[in-house]
């Protein structure tokens, strides 16, 4: 079972538009409403893969009730922590050329009692978990050290933990030795404080996160592929994508594929790449099912192309 923790979930509305023109009336060609938040997306992808998951998340107000109802309709078990503030609503505008514009609301501020209730819910529901996946930004009321405390508690209980966050929350958690961290290229560059221009730059940056405490780093490099850097070695994986429809949740689908395949080694990386490549071809934040995957198109190699320029370098 994979337990996911989403401290700042959302109700996500995605509109597909021909083009985004400021100051003009833009008529959408498609619309979706989905339960959102990085950990929520991981649970949705794990469920689509036929694995059991439990989603722990603070929920409040009418948007929170709708998030719970949408997850229930998808067969996902929800461990809700009631909060006084309303769950945030986010908007994504997906243009026909693949450009995505996101408007993310800040979300409610959690009280001290709500913070402790969230930690206690994770503790009580993680007893039979193979992995805990902690994902996304922290809401107001949670200090950057909150994820570090959660990693420490998980390890004390003997549970492996994956962390997908950024900024101070990521850096504060590294000394607690999360079993895997999953930054994208921008988050990786931010963590090491320098630009990334090549695959080799990204591999070296991932190695630095390991030196700071992460046991493994699964780095999403967008159209360039993914890297896995661990004690056992470094691997690079990629797969062709015919057309990008929406990259919302693609990184979350990758993490779900990685954990569902065991969370270690090149086989898990191949699963992550297959899930990520499938996700970008789906509308909104739809998570890929097994029928959407093309494992044969995935290549994984220990010969990392260190000199290959990134298609989307990070300054």
UniProtKB/TrEMBL annotation:
Which UniProt keywords are given for this protein, alphabetically ordered?
ATP-binding, Kinase, Nucleotide-binding, Transferase
Q: Which InterPro entries match?
A: 1-PFruKinase (IPR022463), PfkB_dom (IPR011611), Ribokinase-like (IPR029056), Tagatose/fructose_Pkinase (IPR017583)
Signal sequence span per UniProt? none
Task: List the EC numbers from the record.
Answer: 2.7.1.56
- Name of one Pfam family that matches: PfkB
Task: Respond yes or no to whether keyword Kinase is given for this record.
Answer: yes
A single Gene Ontology molecular function, please? 1-phosphofructokinase activity
Uppermost EC category: transferase
Q: Which residues form the Carbohydrate kinase PfkB domain?
A: 17-290
Question: Which branch of life, at top level?
Answer: Bacteria
Q: To which protein family does this belong?
A: Belongs to the carbohydrate kinase PfkB family.
Please state what the protein is called. 1-phosphofructokinase
Taxonomy, top ranks, is: Bacteria, Bacillati, Actinomycetota, Actinomycetes, Kitasatosporales
